[in-house]
Each structure stands twice: as C-alpha cells, then as structure tokens.
Amino acid sequence: MKKRIKSIILLFLVLIQITALGSPVDQDKSKGQIEYKVLYLTFDDGPSEYTGKLLDVLAKYHMKATFFMLDAEMKRNPDMVKRIVAEGHAVGVHGVTHEKSTFYCGTLGPLKEMDKANATLEQITGSKTNLARTPYGSSPYLTKKQAEALAAREYVIWDWNIDSKDWCYRNPYKTFRATTQMIQKSQKEPKVILFHDIKHVVETMTLFLEWMQEHQYTSKPITTDITPVKLKQKIN
C-alpha cells in the first residue's frame, strides 16, 4: 500500500514538472519568435565624413547595408571603406565622376569608371566587388552596348525600387515619412531602398531603424544570389 502511495505521489510530481516546463512546441510558442521581413538598405556617393555615424547607427540596431562608393571618396576615406567591410556590410562601386556626360560617354565609358573604382577598392581592402550602381540609375542613360560591356566583366548592376528622395528633401523627417509610406504601399520584392551618404540621413536612419524594429523588419547586405533590382529599362 505504501509503495503504491509513493508511486502515485512520484507520478503526480512528474506531471507537475511536465506541466510547468511545457512541451517543446509550447516552449517555442512562449518564446514568441518573430519572422522578420527583409529590406535592403543602400547608400550611394560615399564614404563621407558622415559614414562613421551611419555605421554606428546601423550597428546599434544590428542592421546591415550595401554601400555603393565613388573612387575619390574611397581614396579620401580609406579607413571608412575598411570599417564598412569589417562590420559585415556589402560594398559596390559607383564609378568615378558621377557626371552623366562623362560617365555615359562611349561604349566603354561606364566600364572604365567602374574598373577604376574597383582598383581603388582592391588597393584599400585587398579584394574587388562585382556589385555596381550607375549614377542616376541604369535607365534611361545606360545603353545596351554599355550594359553588355559591364556584364562581360561580370559586373552586376543594381538599381532600387524605393527612392527615399533624401537628395530632394534634405530633411530627416520628410525623408523618413516618405520612405516608410512607400514601403507600406509597395508590393515589390525584394525591397531595395536608395539612400545617400549625406549629413541628414544619419538622423533619418535613427528614426527609420527604430521604425523597422517596431514593424518587424530587418535588413541584409546585397549578395550575388539575389536577382538584381532594375529600374524600368529604356535601353537605347
């Protein structure tokens, strides 16, 4: 009789423990694991005197981005180029002149500018990139022959499908509101956002990354296994 009572008590204690711990499924539910939506943050025209602050904000929120950099700015800020790479962000080339009349001059104009910027990147970091973004986007200025020359050198051209228009607003709050509104309306995937490495964007990013966390977004660097986003093409 005593053995039976002990057995019942032991079984009762085990049941209490199981109930307290819960099943593996219940435990997963209790953790409230969130499936985050992905955005691709891109910054053009740097690195600049503001890049360090941008990187600080990105690090604070554990976000990654892609920086499309100009030749002269890389030469001016080599430590920032190294830091971008060291902190796990992607890098791409944005050319040299950023002048339409020069960059898009001749069949090999864009290729020569990307190669020169890439050589500078390799000199600073020890490696090149095949990610590239042409000034003002690949449409309507990039011709078919120019695009073919870039592709033959294995450059992958990336545009964007969400333009923050930071270059136009020059105001962190207007840029923030416009960008979040476009994201909420857009049905396109992947969502690639155009920002510029300029002063007020540092404050924009503080607002924007907080908003991303609140709305269950994360960000990732662009990689070669993603189909590139292109502007609506008007190839000549």
Write the layout of secondary structure elements.
Layout: H1 2-21, H2 24-31, E1 37-46, H3 51-60, E2 65-69, H4 71-76, H5 78-86, E3 90-93, H6 100-103, H7 109-125, E4 131-132, H8 144-152, E5 156-157, E6 162-163, H9 166-169, H10 172-185, E7 191-196, H11 199-214, E8 217-219
Parallel strand pairs: 1-2, 1-7, 1-8, 2-3, 4-5, 6-7
InterPro entries: Glyco_hydro/deAcase_b/a-brl, NODB_dom, Polysacc_deacetylase_ArnD
Domain NodB homology: 37-225
Protein name: Polysaccharide deacetylase
Write a concise keyword list for the protein shown above.
two-stranded parallel sheet, alpha/beta, six-stranded parallel β-sheet, hydrolase activity, acting on carbon-nitrogen (but not peptide) bonds, 236 residues, Polysaccharide deacetylase, Polysacc_deacetylase_ArnD, globular, Glyco_hydro/deAcase_b/a-brl, TIM Barrel, 14% strand, single chain
